[in-house]
């Protein structure tokens, strides 16, 4: 809902604190989550995330959340889906050129970031959207990124198991005659 989205940006500092608490709790629960199985958790957690973030931020479930870097203004609400700042069409009143009735999400992002403790994260360059992650839980993805080694790059071969030293190395050398 648009009014709630604007409210969330106005209270970005509070949401930043809430998000940090949620993230720390989920990271602490990582062993339990792993035991239950991330695959098994994906559907229910994504459903909760969709409802909560949909209400607060008009979340589009891109699966790679940038809210903590964008002043709690979801960049996926930009009609051009821009993830690294506004286009050149922002109107003089700060509204969107495509949807004139809507404030530019990046003007909002800048205002929200200014209130946040880690607001300078808005200067970080965001990666292009990976559409394979659409509909998936960002929360679970963040937990896995923080607690598991990164997956090998696509196409890389699995490492061969380490070879034990040859038995001959343990036999004493023959004494010189
Ligand atoms: S950045 Fe992605 S996950 Fe975060 S609120 Fe926007 S659509 Fe949802």
Could you walk me through the main structural features you see in this protein, from its secondary elements to its overall organization?
There is one protein chain. The longest helix has 20 residues, at 38-57. The protein is globular and about 70 Å long. It has 177 residues and is mainly alpha-helical. The chain has helices at residues 2-10, 12-28, 30-36, 38-57, 105-115, 138-147. The chain has six helices and no strands. 42% of the residues lie in helices and 0% in strands. The site of iron/sulfur cluster (SF4) has 13 residues, from helix 4.
Write a short abstract of this structure.
It is built from 6 helices and no strands.
Secondary-structure element pattern, one letter each: HHHHHH
Computed CA radius of gyration, to the nearest angstrom: 24 Å
Largest sheet: none
Strand content: under 5%
Average pLDDT across residues?
90
Listed once per kind, the bound small molecules are: iron/sulfur cluster
Whole-number tally of structural domains: 1
Shape category: globular
How far apart are the termini? 92 Å
The percent of residues in helical segments reads: 40-55%
Secondary structure tally: strands = 0
Tally of contiguous helical segments: 6
Low-confidence stretches: none
């Amino acid at each position: 809902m648009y009014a709630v989205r604007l409210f969330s940006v106005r209270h970005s500092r509070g949401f930043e604190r809430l998000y940090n608490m949620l993230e720390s709790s989920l990271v602490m629960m990582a062993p339990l989550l792993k035991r239950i199985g991330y695959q098994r958790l994906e559907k229910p957690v994504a459903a909760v995330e969709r409802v909560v973030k949909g209400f607060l931020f008009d979340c589009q479930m891109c699966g790679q959340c940038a809210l903590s870097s964008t002043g709690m203004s979801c960049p996926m609400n930009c009609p051009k889906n821009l993830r690294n700042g506004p286009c050149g069409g922002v109107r003089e009143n700060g509204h969107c050129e495509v949807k004139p009735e809507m404030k530019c999400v990046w003007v909002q992002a800048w205002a929200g970031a200014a209130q946040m403790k880690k607001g300078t994260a808005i200067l970080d360059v965001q990666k292009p959207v990976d559409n394979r992650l659409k509909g998936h839980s960002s929360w679970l993805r963040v937990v896995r990124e923080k607690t598991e080694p990164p997956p090998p790059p696509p196409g890389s071969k699995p490492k061969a198991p380490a070879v034990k030293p040859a038995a001959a190395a343990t036999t004493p050398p023959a004494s010189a005659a």
